[in-house]
Design goal:
Blueprint (H helix, E strand, L loop, with lengths): L1 H48 L7 H78 L4 H32 L8 E4 H15 L5 E5 L4 E4 L1 H18 L6 E8 L2 E7 L34 H11 L3 E6 L5 E6 L1
Parallel strand pairs: 2-4
Antiparallel strand pairs: 1-3, 4-5, 5-7, 6-7
Bound molecules: adenosine-5'-diphosphate.
């Protein structure tokens, strides 16, 4: 609904905008034509009043015609100035309203996503726990249900952390730790945590050597976790995910590569915007809120770093964190 709503609302605005714009242009053209006509009528009246026998007749006639030409030039000048002002104003209004509609649509998508993201884990956890309580299950089944409840609460935990952190980091006086981080150790820890959580997935880490930066280890871990989360979420289950730490041209880089659908060129910047998700809540199958990459970028920039996405070959994407 959010997507069609957006199209409808933007289409609606576009329709009235162009009607108004065309009306204003038509009014301007009409104003020009009527002034030209008036000036033409006045000139021919003046010419009629001239006395042909007057020795000054030709000089007076020339003066009337010159006056008419000057008037026309004045109307054209004024008309073009108005036109430039109208077009500038229209471009400004069009852009700002389009931006506003986009933002409100992103927020609407976020509200739908978050409602869904909160409700699903709560409902699943509740169902698992109720089943364990009410039924006499063997230990293996119990274990399975409890593990499922645990993984759902983990998801909830990550989601609430992301939301809280995003709003904390937006505050002006946000303070973070500043310690020395051994990136090779950190990559190793994060990747082995993912290997434990997703034993069926192939996740491989590699590190050139011990590389260090100063910063908040927990935050950088969250940033890296968001990238690995996405790689696992968007790429097919049987495809591998690589996490590589390396030094390249004086930059320390962490690359997360997957063999998923990749990110289209026109979305390579947009995906880092707050609440941005490709497609609509209805066409999108993967879970999410559009906060992960926004938060990741914020964390990396807060550490004087940069983050961007490239195409992987033959398919997929490579997210690069660069310090
Ligand atoms: P979420 O995953 O919750 O939607 P993110 O901010 O993490 O939010 O990602 C924003 C969008 O970027 C996603 O909706 C998805 O379309 C795209 N994206 C992120 N990571 C990948 C990836 N590894 N492969 C393909 N698309 C991705």
């Amino acid at each position: 609904m959010a997507y069609t709503n957006k199209v409808f609302r933007f289409g609606n605005f576009s329709f009235w905008f162009w009607i108004l714009f065309i009306y204003i242009l038509a009014a301007l053209i009409w104003w020009f034509i009527s002034l030209e006509r008036q000036s033409g009528d006045m000139s021919s009246l003046k010419l009629q009043l001239l006395n042909k026998n007057d020795p000054q007749y030709f000089a007076q006639q020339r003066e009337v015609l010159q006056f008419k030409t000057r008037q026309s030039a004045k109307f054209i000048g004024e008309g073009l100035t108005f036109l430039a002002l109208i077009v500038t104003g229209a471009v400004f209004v069009y852009r700002s309203i389009r931006k506003q509609i986009e933002v409100s649509s992103l927020q609407q998508n976020f509200m739908m996503a978050i409602t869904h993201e909160l409700k699903t884990p709560i409902a699943t956890t509740r169902l698992s726990l109720e089943t364990v309580l009410r039924r006499k299950l063997d230990e293996v089944q119990q274990q399975k249900l409890l593990l499922s409840a645990l993984s759902e609460t983990n998801r909830l935990n990550i989601l609430t952390n992301n939301i809280l952190l995003a709003s904390q980091m937006e505050e002006k006086n946000f303070q973070r730790e500043n310690e020395q981080i051994n990136l090779a150790d950190m990559v190793e820890t994060v990747v082995s945590d993912y290997k434990n959580r997703f034993p069926q997935r192939r996740i491989e880490a590699s590190a050139d050597k011990d590389l260090y930066i100063d910063g908040d280890e927990l935050l950088v871990q969250i940033a890296l976790s968001n990238l690995i989360d996405n790689a696992l979420k968007y790429a097919p289950k049987e495809s591998p995910v690589y996490v590589d730490l390396m030094e390249d041209n004086d930059y320390t880089q962490i690359k997360v590569s997957d063999e998923g659908p990749g990110v289209p060129d026109e979305e390579k910047q947009k995906i880092f915007q707050k609440f941005y998700r490709s497609g609509s809540e209805y066409t999108r199958k993967a879970k999410g809120t559009g906060l992960g990459l926004y938060l990741t970028k914020k964390i990396i920039e807060d550490h004087n770093g940069d983050i961007f996405v490239m195409n992987n070959t033959p398919r997929g994407s490579i997210f690069v964190i660069q310090f």
